[in-house]
Amino acid sequence: MKWSPRVLKFALNIYGPYLGAGIRITHIDPEWREMHVRMKLRWYNRNIMGTHFGGCLYAMVDPQMMLMLMNRLGKEYIVWDQAAEIEYVKPAKGTVEAHLSLSDAQLDEIKRKTSGGLAYRPSFEIAIRDVDGIVVSKVKKVLYVKRKKH
């Protein structure tokens, strides 16, 4: 399913879990090469220590790589989130941001690795940063990608 970046941005910004966590998609590249996500610290997304709740930090970047890859590859491919891990580097206060990207080289490698009909599990590293650019969390996403049979 191919989405318009504008429609997806609107849909994600009113999506209940994102709305409830205060997560905002601020930019989706028209060619699906980048997506920017932001979250301000609010009373409803902070933990007992007064910092960002870890689940909200992960939710910021949960479906983006899958959505970007689905839209870049098109309906000839199966794309699923398969695994993830998050490392909390520093307590996150204030506004945090993540800039996710999918390069042409990454896309070419995925196409090459799936050209024979085998599944491929690319891994993506995503940094969540505070407004000073300091990394507060690192997320590793593993996707499952397979070319559909003709």
UniProtKB/TrEMBL annotation:
Pfam families in the record: DUF4442
Domain of life: Bacteria
InterPro entries: DUF4442, HotDog_dom_sf
Protein name: Acyl-coenzyme A thioesterase PaaI, contains HGG motif
